[in-house]
Amino acid sequence: MSIEQEVEALKNIPLFANIDPSRLKLMAFASERLIFKEGKELFHQGDAGDAAYIFIDGEADVIVDTDDGPLVVASFAKNDFVGEIAILCDVPRTATIKAKSELVTLKITKELFFNMVMDFPEMGVEVMRVLAHRIDHTTSQLTEARNALADKAS
Amino acid sequence: MEQRLFKYIWKHSKKDQIKILFLVLASMPFYFLSLDLPKSIINRAVDSQNFADINSTLSFMRFELPFGEAIFGHKVILFEGFDLTQISLLFALCFAFLGLVLVNGLFKFVINTLKGQLGERMLRRLRFELTDRILRFPVMHSRRVKQAEIATMLKDEVEPLGGFIGDAIVTPFFLGGQALTALIFIMVQNVWLGVVAMSIVLVQAFVIPKLRRRILDLGRQRQMTARALAGRVSELVEGAVEIQSHDTSNYERAEISSRLGKIFKIRYEIYQRKFFVKFLNNLLAQITPFIFYLGGGYLVITGQFEIGTLVAVLAAYKDLPPPIKDLINWDQQRNDVQIKYEQVAEQFQPSGMIDAEMQRLEEKHSPPLEGDIVASNLGLVDENENKLLEGITFTVGVDKKIAIVGNASSGKEYLGLLLANLVKSSSGSMKIGGKPMAQLPSAITGRRISYVSSEAYLFPLSVMDNLFYGLRNWMIKDSSCLPDSEAELLREKQEALRTGNIALNPNGEWIDFTSAGINDPAELVPRVTEVLRAVDFEEDVYLFGLSGIVDSENRPDIAESILGARIALKEHLKATGEEDLVIAFDPEKYNNNATLRENLLFGTPRKKQYAGNNLLAMPILRESVEEADLRDSIYNMGLSIARTMVELFMGLPPSHQFFEQFSFISADDLPEFDKIVKRADKSSFSEISDSDREALMYLPFDYVEARHRLGLVTEDVEAKILKARTIFAEKLESRDPDAVEFYDPDNYNSAASIQDNILFGRLAYGRAEAGATIGRVMTELLDDLGLRSEVIEVGLEFNVGIAGNRLSSVQRQKLALARSLIKRPDLLILNEAAAVMDSQSQNRLVPSIMEAQEDRGICWTLQRASLSQHFEYVIVMQNGKVVESGRFDELNKDGKVLKSLIDDE
Lengths: 154, 905
Hints:
The complex is a heterodimer of chains A (about 150) and B (about 900). Helix content of chain A is about 45%, strand content about 30%. Chain A has five helices and eight strands; from the N terminus they run H-H-E-E-E-E-E-E-H-E-E-H-H. In chain A, helix 1 (about 5-10) crosses helix 2 and helix 4 packs across helix 5. The relative contact order of chain A is 0.19. In chain B, strands 10-15-16-7-17-18 form a six-stranded mixed sheet, sandwiched between helices. A four-stranded antiparallel sheet of chain B has the order 6-5-8-9, covered by helices on one side. In chain B, strands 1-4 form a two-stranded antiparallel sheet. Chain B is extended and about 125 Å long. In chain B, helix 1 (about 5-45) runs antiparallel to helix 3 and helix 5 packs antiparallel against helix 8. The interface of A and B includes residues 26 and 28 of A.
């Protein structure tokens, strides 16, 4: 797969949908393409976060350590962007990501990510938009969960 | 060291000086004869009036006793001589002349050589003596001196002394004699004219040196300013980081410029005065003939003087000024070197110099230290009389594990220095085993005690040589002597001894392995490994070893084993299904994970003209590329890369770090390549200029398909590169066979590192786990094959660089600790030796070193008080005084200082 294909993949990711293709190409060029075999971990819960990953192909499970052992809470697939929280606010990884099939990713290091955001503010705005959407989404989920709990209680 | 240069010269070279003086005297008669002989040739042999006819003879080599007639009343003939005809006489006299020329030349040759030899010997002696003094500087003084200044003195400032010393005594005798002869001759002719000539000479002799006094003073200033300049210049180098990071380069420029201005001013004044003195000197020299012409001429005219006498006086006077002039020059040179000598000597006698006797060479093991360390009322003051330590009193066994704690101003560092005998106390006393510390020679303190400071110095040698540095106490065996050079070696030794140097061979066997507990060469690596492990440095050395290079000719055993590891790695990866983590070098295939250059060269360059971008300039490579029809492909790849780079990087500011990290083209060159790409896009292939092509051709050589992913290496390109590779190898084989060591799956590569030899390929790009997995597997394999110690052995050859700058500061400290530990000292003094390490490393290091020291003593001035829990005895210091001491559990209580120090951490 050449860099042009990676740029195509990046275009399909909502976070980068509105960003100029030449910028995406620079990002693809400056980032490392990493392949994870099935069963390999991208990172482990509690690790320090140094990079985010863009999924070009394949699927992965999101696993959280609980008192009853590891629990799969979600899964990611092609065009997902994971691990950005840890590099944005320097917190340890909140979950483990494990490849469910052969997984092709672009590794965006913290340094690269910040460089891109600094140099191309439109990317920063885009990141804000995506994160805001996520907060909105999470908040509504929280409200639903609260209502459900309240319903149960009453 | 003598204060006066002449005393020094006379003391160390009087025999040689007198020898040369006698030689000069012995050469005199021959010299005068050779001056006299041309006259005889003309007057006696050539002039026909002396010979009545062709057969008449004259005597040759007839010797009369000088003044014989006056003493005995008749001529005394010593040798009748030979009677020779005119032609024979001419031949005889001419050959005698030639013989005298030869004799004079030989005299001159021998005398000059002896003078040179004498000068060089004295210079060697002086330099050695100065070095000897540097080695005896007290450490507190060494900390203050500027290295560059000391080096300049030793190297440059004493240099002119060597040239002068040969002439120091001979020249004044010789020239003085000549001048005196001429003066006496004039005196004999006419007393008054003699008096005139002499008084002018006396004026010269008194006035000129007076005028020169200021010049000498300036010379002294010149020397000081030049020396200070050398010191400043070295500061510019040492402080490069500070200067650049604070943008003070222009301040430094101004500072240097002002110094240079000062030096210029001094030197200019020297010239002005020097040439004025010269002018005056010449004037005085010409005053004498002026008086002779005027006074003598008047006397002749008035008939009181004969004209013949005046002519003789003037002829004699001709011989007077040159020796006088030379004498004055000699005197100036004497003053000059005298000043240099005094200036240098002054710098090399700091107060508190270590007595030479204390550093005497002791060719046997020193007795171990036993008993107690007893400090009673120890005090230490600095040069400003500030109290650094005061009233220190304690008694503790030399074999105990002692901790000294206290904050930064507690003076604990000085106590460490006192214990190592590196600093002498100002008051009170310290005894070890009943003997006063101050009287212990370095053969005991330097061997039975080991000292590590917080910033240990490493020598620019290998890890191994640094490790054993502390065991080079005396020469155990002189092993480097080749059988046929024995006589030469003996000569060198005698030469060294006669100039007061040391006659030991630094290349002999110096390392005392038995002190390190190594009695057999086979124990070396295990013992070294043990010590390295104790300071947590073994892994580092192992890694040095992995990236180290071993020549298979020197160590065929290691090469063989490494080759085995290569096969084992391949099999291991195959078994675990991870063989795609390494893309092996295959002579038949293009390696997508290696650069284009590597794929072409397919080997490790041995000569540097085949490395890096140099390779592209090599005609052999160019021919091979041409023959494989690869030129256009490379050009097209270059164009593609340039186009992509222009597209990606054109908008970025030139200082952006992406350029450094990712771009094939530097920010400065990018606009130029932008133009090249535009030109290339507009014109057809054949129209592109050669210079544009050339620029583009350089780009693809660092291109790695798997990493850069521009899709440039097509099947067609691959095939051509493989063809070029074969052609290149064939050409190289015949034209420059040693230039490149080619990759060969079945052979060890002596130009590549151990690691590269085992891997024999490149890690696959894009495989997250590749680096870690291969690293782990490689270590496991080497352990399984029993190769770890071999790799460490290679790592021990790693050169640490100037002052150890190829190591990190932590690594430097670890090596310094190992250097002290391996000596197995009775007392190991660690003066905040672990301060550069993080807390966790310190926590690990303290017990580990305790264990390695076994039942021998340790005295550790700790940066962190809590670490004192590992020690048997704790001394707590505050403001240069011991405030409490005892066992840790006694002191670790509320109300105790130690407790508060620990709580503050």
